[in-house]
Specification:
Blueprint lengths: L6 H4 L9 H9 L2 E5 L4 E3 L7 E7 L2 E6 L5 E7 L4 E2 L13 E4 L3 E7 L1 H9 L1 H27 L2 H16 E4 L2 E4 L5 H8 L3 H13 L3 E4 L2 E4 L2 H7 L5
Antiparallel strand pairs: 1-8, 2-7, 3-6, 3-8, 4-5, 4-7, 9-10, 10-12, 11-12
Helix pairs in contact: 3-4, 5-6, 5-8, 6-7
This protein binds a DNA duplex through helix 7.
Length: 231
DNA sequence: TCATTAAGTATGC
DNA sequence: GCATACTTAATGA
């Protein structure tokens, strides 16, 4: 297999403080893999034998309830670590990771986790930042679920998607991966019908524009007001 | 206020 | 032309 280029990692926060030789050593132990659209990288409950870094594409991290319904826990954007069960002292993955687009990821065997965190302080601090950010987002979402009306939750979810993955297009900012109303309902604890109605209403009033699996936010400010954010 | 049911249209492989 | 995505209305908890 061809050698991976060092530039893949040099600009990413977990590695940016490392020198060339260190990055080389890390890359030489990594396995790159491409994942098809809608394929799973790993499954909930599966033995956590590797941890990952997403180089390209977008992932949905999904938990399935005993009743079989899916809940989208979070999305992963390029440059982020995922499947970091070892940081949680776990030996199985707590959720399933699905490719929302065709994706490319590096992975390492878990036995390297300790080596990385011990030898590369920036890697360790960055993983704790990542965990902290995800924990924070989950806490906000739990609070929203318990206290906010559906419209606010959906508005807040769209804003989060846009801030994490938005790309500029003419007339607004587009969520960078295909997303259905069903997906959004799985993030917000409602039904696809309610999401559909909300998006239709927002489209009529010029806040969003949407086509099948694509959503462009054309008026982020008004969406922010709908989310109930305090000025 | 929102989920559910139901019945329809649109879209893309 | 079929499955999937999406829309809309009606009903009732």
């Amino acid at each position: 297999m061809a050698q991976l280029d060092e530039s893949l990692l040099t600009d990413l926060p977990p590695f940016s403080a490392l020198d060339r030789a260190q990055i080389r050593a890390i890359l030489d132990q990594a396995t790159p893999k491409r994942y098809d659209h809608e394929s799973a990288i790993f499954h909930e409950g599966q033995d956590a034998d590797r941890f990952f870094l997403l180089l390209d594409g977008y992932l949905r991290v999904i938990r399935t309830t005993p009743e079989g319904e899916q809940i989208i826990a979070l999305h992963i954007s390029p440059g982020q670590l995922f499947g970091i069960a070892p940081a949680l002292q776990r030996d199985t993955y707590p959720a399933t990771a699905m490719a929302a687009t065709e994706s490319l990821a590096l992975s390492w065997p878990v036995r390297l986790w300790e080596e990385f965190t011990q030898n590369y302080p920036s890697f360790a601090t960055e993983t704790y930042k990542t965990l902290g950010a995800r924990l924070g987002e989950m806490q906000t979402r739990i609070t929203e679920l318990a206290t906010q009306a559906v419209e606010r939750r959906v508005a807040a979810a769209l804003l989060r998607l846009v801030s994490q993955s938005g790309r500029k297009v003419d007339g607004g900012v587009e969520i960078a991966f295909p997303i259905t109303r069903q997906n959004i309902s799985e993030m917000t604890g409602t039904t696809l019908h309610t999401v559909s109605r909300l998006l239709s209403a927002w489209e009529k009033s010029g806040i969003v524009k949407s086509a099948r699996k694509r959503i462009v936010v054309t008026d982020p400010h008004r969406l922010l007001l709908l989310s109930g954010a305090q000025s």
